[in-house]
Design goal:
The structure holds two protein chains of two kinds.
Chain A: E1 15-16, E2 21-22, E3 25-27, E4 33-36, E5 39-52, E6 62-71, E7 76-82, E8 87-90
Antiparallel strand pairs in A: 2-8, 3-4, 4-5, 5-6, 6-7, 7-8
Chain B: E1 11-15, H1 19-27, E2 36-40, E3 52-56, H2 58-61, H3 78-84, E4 90-92, H4 96-113, E5 117-119, E6 131-135, H5 140-143, H6 146-156, E7 163-167, H7 170-179, E8 185-187, H8 192-196, H9 208-216, H10 222-226, H11 230-237, H12 239-248, E9 264-275, H13 278-293, E10 303-312, E11 318-328, H14 331-343, E12 351-359, H15 373-392, E13 399-403, E14 415-419
Parallel strand pairs in B: 2-4, 7-8
Antiparallel strand pairs in B: 1-6, 1-7, 2-3, 5-6, 9-12, 10-11, 10-12, 13-14
Helix pairs in contact in B: 4-6, 11-12, 13-14
The chains are: A mainly beta, B alpha+beta.
């Protein structure tokens, strides 16, 4: 049973748009995605890397490799590999 | 229900037995001699997918023993009815919009004779169709005696096999109508208990399951119920027990409430071929709207609601209601709202014909428009948010997209949703 928080339903907070969502990716040895959530990747259309906020220390540093890929069923998808935590995200 | 002159007021009941079947046999005469059961979803069971008996052809409903009791009850499960029906029975899907329209015409014809007409809406199984009560007190100066009033009412429904009964309350009028023969009226006078005593409990306006329980207790006629004290009936069956006890003794306290007629404009068209294409349906709606707004009743007036009823190929009819946020005074405004509503809907199948009804007609002939619309836009938004806040009791979850760091290389930092504050 989830207890009643006894607070009003509020919508005050700032909600970031386009937040990353974890996704299951199988990648090859070079780190290129081969499949995304069991969907085969047909082509990698673009790829770039961002490295930001390194001055905040290794725990808060942002280090991502982005891929703009097209899946075998034709859907486009933007992914990144978070090198700091070694996880994949869709964005 | 006393009248000014101290006499007991009289109510007439116009009962069209098997109304749905009668309408079907009028439009499809080949069904007139065939055993038919009209099946559909019923009362509280709508949306659950189970099929129930809504109506049937008269000879199918009679028990073979020739007793006056009915073999079927409205709302009984189809499986139960089929177990008791003939093998060659035809099952029909109901066309409720058509039945409602024809019954509305019947009510209008009755109102032309007597002003106080109340459709019986209490029976959910029959969709409130086929039975109406008419207040006939005070009409003797217009028509003469009750027999003349009954004749006038009978003329209003002469296309149907209708029964007319007169009694001192609605229940007795209905019972008189049920017991009368076609084309003749029946009036219950004197002690109603004696008249009711031999009638079957199936006539009581209660649920099918309660009727079954009454039989289980050996209560087959209203005389059986009237012989028991009301307290015992209430103790066994609750509120329904009191109701059946009162009715079995001829007591009915329900007042007659005349219906309020609503002005509406209706237009109809048939498609050359059944279609699911919005490219055909939307121009058809536009054409119906054009015709409706060209009618004199809608000249310089606005409609608050539109209802679309469509006949669907091999499926039950489809109906949607569109309430306009602001009354629509032109074809284009009404079409815009209808189109927005239809964008979210999936058609149940190919549409064969369509009827559009515009209702909630306003009396205004114009609207005050703003000269500078941009100036008032924020004000309108503020008002809408205030209304939502009042309705929800808290700040409404209405957001707007704001730029935070549009230059950021990290996508989730560029934009955010923040609470709308106009």
């Amino acid at each position: 049973m989830v207890p009643n928080p006894r607070t009003q339903a509020r919508a005050r907070a700032i909600k970031p748009l386009n937040a990353p969502v974890t996704v299951a990716v199988i990648a090859d040895k070079r780190g290129m995605p081969l499949s995304v959530s069991s969907n085969e990747v047909a082509t990698i259309e673009d790829m770039w890397k961002i490295n930001d906020e390194w001055w905040r220390g290794p725990e808060k540093e942002i280090e991502r490799v982005y891929f703009h890929a097209r899946l075998a069923d034709g859907r486009p998808v933007t992914l990144f590999h978070d090198l700091a935590v070694d996880e994949w995200f869709r964005q | 229900m006393p009248t000014l002159d101290g006499k007991r007021a009289a109510v007439a009941c116009i009962h069209i037995p098997n109304f749905m079947w009668q309408v079907e046999s009028l439009r499809r005469p080949e069904l007139a001699d065939r055993p038919v059961i009209i099946v559909g979803e019923s009362g509280a069971n709508v949306g659950k997918g189970a099929q129930f008996v809504l109506d049937w052809s008269p000879e199918l409903g009679q028990k073979s023993s020739g007793t006056s009791s009915q073999k079927f009850t409205r709302g009984m499960p189809l499986s139960e009815a089929l177990a008791d029906a003939r093998k060659d029975v035809t099952l029909l899907e109901p066309d409720i919009p058509l039945y409602r329209r024809i019954f509305a015409e019947v009510l209008t014809a009755l109102e032309a004779r007597c002003p106080d007409v109340e459709p019986d809406t209490e029976s959910a199984e029959s969709y409130g169709l086929g039975r109406a009560y008419v207040g006939i007190w005070g009409l003797e100066r217009l028509y003469g005696d009750d027999a003349q009033v009954v004749r006038a009412l009978s003329n209003a429904v002469n296309q149907f096999d209708a029964r007319i009964g007169v009694g001192e309350n609605k229940w007795l009028a209905y019972i008189a109508a049920s017991a009368s023969s076609p084309g003749r009226g029946l009036k219950i006078t004197g002690e109603p208990g004696r008249f009711l005593a031999k009638l079957p409990v199936e006539l009581l306006p209660v649920d099918f399951r309660l009727i079954t329980r009454l039989h289980g207790f050996g209560l087959h006629t209203m005389g059986d119920i009237a012989a028991l004290p009301p307290g015992a009936m209430q103790a066994q069956f609750g509120g329904d027990g009191t109701l059946v006890s009162d009715l079995s003794n001829g007591i009915d306290q329900r007042p007659l409430v005349a219906r309020r007629t609503e002005e509406a404009v209706s237009e109809y068209l048939e498609f050359p071929d059944a279609t699911v294409s919005m490219a055909m349906i939307l121009p058809a709606i536009e054409s119906l709207l054009s015709r409706a707004y060209n009618r004199p009743q809608l000249a310089r007036r606005y409609a608050r609601e539109a209802k679309l009823e469509a006949g669907v190929l091999r499926r039950p009819p489809w109906t949607i209601r569109v309430a306009f946020k602001e009354p629509a005074g032109s074809r284009t405004k009404a079409l815009f709202s209808i189109k927005s509503k239809m964008d979210d809907l999936a058609l149940p199948g190919p549409i064969e014909d369509m009827r559009l009804t515009l209702s909630g007609l306003t009396g205004e002939a114009g609207r005050q428009e703003s000269l500078w619309t941009e100036v008032r836009r924020d004000q309108k938004l503020q008002e809408a948010v205030s209304q939502l806040e009042a309705r929800l009791g808290t700040a409404p979850p209405v957001y707007q997209v704001r730029e935070l760091e549009p230059w950021s290389r990290i996508p989730e930092r560029r934009h955010a949703l923040v609470q709308l504050s106009p």
